[in-house]
C-alpha cells in the first residue's frame, strides 16, 4: 500500500473515532434524579472523594430533536424547538411531547457525572 493511501486511511479512521460518542452513564453514580421545568436534570451525584453533590444540568446543552427520537447533540435546544412536559419514565429515559409526537432520550447516552457535577457526555 502506498504511503498516501495509508495516510488517507488513518485520517478516515481518526475522523470516525472522533464522531463516536462515549456513554455518560450518569445514573450509575447519581441518585434522586428528575427533570425540573422541562429541561433541567437534577441529581445527587458521588464525587471522587466519596461525597455527595447536588447538581443540575440544562439538558438543552446536550440534547436535540431527530426525526424519531431525542438525540445527544451539543446545544441541541430540544425544549426551545418545541418539546414539552419532559419527565423521567423508566431508568434514565426521558420522555417528552415534541413536534411530531412523543420522543425519548436515553440520558445515560448524553449525560455524565464529572466528579459530582452533571455534564454533557
From TrEMBL:
Stretch forming the signal peptide: 1-22
Superkingdom of the organism of origin: Eukaryota
Keyword Signal: yes
Domain Cyanovirin-N: 26-118
Keyword Manganese listed: no
One Pfam family from the record: CVNH
InterPro entries according to UniProt: Cyanovirin-N, Cyanovirin-N_sf
Keywords: Signal
Protein name: Cyanovirin-N
